[in-house]
Amino acid sequence: MTLEAQARAALRRGDLPAAAAAAKALALASPDEPAGFFLLGMAAAEAGQIAKAVPLIEAAVERGPEAEHLAQLARLLILLRRDGEAANAAQAAMTLAPGDALTLDTIGCVLARLGDHEGSLTPFAAAVKAQPGNLDYRYNLAAASGFTGRVDDARAHYETILAKDPGDARAHYALAILSRQTAQANHVARLQSALAKASKPDDALRIRYALAKELEDIGNSGDAFQHLSAANAAHKRAIQYDFGQDAAIFDAVEALFIDGAHSLAAGQGNADLAPIFVVGMPRTGTTLVDRILSSHRDVGSAGELQAMPLAVKRLTGTSSRVVIDPETVLASGGINPTEIGDAYMERAGHHRPRGVARFTDKLPANFLYIGHIARALPNARIVCLRRNPMDTVWSNYKNLFASQSAYYAYSYDLMDTARYYMRFDRLMAMWERLYPDRVLQLSYEALVADQEGQTRRLLDHCRLEWDEACLSFHENRAAVATPSAAQVRRPINADAVGKWRSYADALEPARAWLEAQGIKII
């Protein structure tokens, strides 16, 4: 067996010391060949040493680019948040016409992480063609198909997966949210069977969410809430979330911009007027507004960027492993706003669509960064979606966000979600006082009731000329990778307005608490 074969075999069985030893021997024996350096890098990556792995794989690429090496380099660069370099490596890998399924799937995953879901379809489809029995590859193709509006293709792929693995919880959940179910056509019985057999907590979580969604679709609100309540309670216990974690972040933001306002670093900021930030609580119409704006001839959607949180985190240099925490918030006040603006524009530049002057950044949690946005990007426009408090609470509680994301950990408990809404509402009032007229607080209900009037108001705030295409946002063919994908491909409607009332009894504790805090419930 050759040294390369030894290293690859050791990697497959997880014997990292043996893989590294064989790869090192190969690099020493053939220093001008890429294989040894690539395999050394892969051994380091498997050991979690990403920063060590990247230069080794870069050394392999320098000795003669190969699609496999470039694809893996792109994957690791994504993990290091070096998105521009990752995009270049993925594109270079694709131009080399890779034939093996893993490399193709890896390229697709990188493109998907970069928000290029349309571009990811080609490598994902090629991976499935090369290995049609690999369910992970097929799931990735199904997800990309759904994100890009190819609903029938996505449905067929998910059904293929479930035919081979009836317990695949990811496919069950994805299929449930792909479209609205009806009393005549749904998967409730199949989901109940899958739930009874689910042995892993994460599988039960996804299947219960799928059941809740389909039961709500067909009008069975009682059983839907029972499944949600069980799923959320179990997941909150698993992640050991305490609302104090988020309360401390809100406290730090308020302390920095009120008590510490006098010590905020001075600076003119970056004058670029390209960004339009769409913020707010999740599930309040942020995707809808993003689609309306990106239907404009001068605007493209960059998706939900981490560019602002990462710019602030990197510039503060705080040691915590999370993007936002009280220490990072308080340290951020000492950064020159121009540095933040420049760092944001550099990061966002890797994602912004070409050929248009303006772009949207639809990360809902950017409402925490409005103070920095206002100071670092003085010409950027900010739109915050506001929705009926109880519809907001209910919609957050019932949707499965990225289950490991700290941004949405509050949503697995009804009262935590109400508390989070209250702090969000209080923070938005603070931004309004500190930066009047910088943020358009746009009512979801008003937009539904008066689409053209509110769209004109939106475009005026964003300094955009009128474009009739904004009223036909549902014809926008750009990809959507949020739970709202199905809704925003339909014309505007009032189906979701007042939806919480179907669950009024179960939601009464949250309603009463919010009302006691002085928050008006319509």
From TrEMBL:
Q: Which domain of life is it from?
A: Bacteria
* Signal peptide span: none
- Database matches in Pfam families: Sulfotransfer_3 (PF13469), TPR_16 (PF13432), TPR_19 (PF14559)
* The entry's keywords: Transferase
Record bears the keyword 4Fe-4S: no
InterPro entries named among the record's database cross-references: P-loop_NTPase, TPR-like_helical_dom_sf, TPR_rpt, TPST-like
Any one GO molecular function term: protein-tyrosine sulfotransferase activity
Q: Does the keyword Repressor apply?
A: no
* Annotated protein name in UniProt: Sulfotransferase
